[in-house]
Amino acid sequence: MERAALKFSEAAPLAATSPEVPTIAMPAELSKPDALEPEPATTTPAAPALGAAEYIRLWLSLHRRQLRSLAIGTLSLGLFLLSWHLLTKYRVNVHVRFVNVPSPEMVFESLLKTGRDTKFVSHVLLSCRRILFGFAIAAVIAVPLGLVMGRFRMVREFVFPISEMLRPIPAIAWVPMSIMLWPSNEESIIFITFLGSFFPILINTLHGMTMVDPVLVRAAQCLGAREMSIFREVYFPATLPYVFTGLTIGMGVAWVSLIAAEMISGQFGIGYFTWEAYSLVQYSDIALGMICIGLLGLGASALIRGVGRLVMPWD
Fold it and tell me: How far is CA 251 from CA 132, 138, 266, 272, 311, in A?
């Protein structure tokens, strides 16, 4: 106890002589107990929901170009139909004779009549099947062959003269030869359709290979890419726009070749239907067959373009 009292008596003078610690006065705002509590977070008000009118206006602004193209196409089609109606109604005969040309009303009546007949539908479906087989075989052969011809000079020098010799021969000239080559009319018609679409696809693919930037090829080679990698990563993406252009052109030529073959040697198909209508002097059915051929070709080409936009989003 005495030792503790001695230590306390020694420490007391030190505490008295030590300098005072300055006290910091807190502002009045912080001295309040409520000032130390965090302020509630301010939430931004949600954007008001778009009304029907605003949504329609926004959609129209986003699709202005497509709607403009649709409006111009509709106007063009309407003017064509109006001109057709006036020329056939007044039987215009100024060097070009519209005396026996059916009017749009007559063609529409023929459409209603043949629409109830399953025979016309079978003609259309058979022509579509022939186009599908011939065009698919042509694309499967022509695209790889064009890629190889564009990459290897020896293959191009060997195949190109033969293709250039056969390419100018029209599809109608192939009809007698195809009948002799193939055992059935169906196979000969598909062969003619194949020839019609093969050469446009081949030439466009070959042209696309020649347009590839050689700097890209050398860059891939410097990075250690092998031949298959260069084909897959450089040549094929760069050639795709030309390939789809060839596919679109080949589809149109395939329809021309198919109709010519069906008119000459076929017994079914939309080409045979059109030629039979001419033989039976059914002029409205002739125009119906021609319009049907045009719509089928338009739909097939639009399908190829749609696939091209999906495959090539960068183009």
Answer: 10, 10, 20, 19, 18
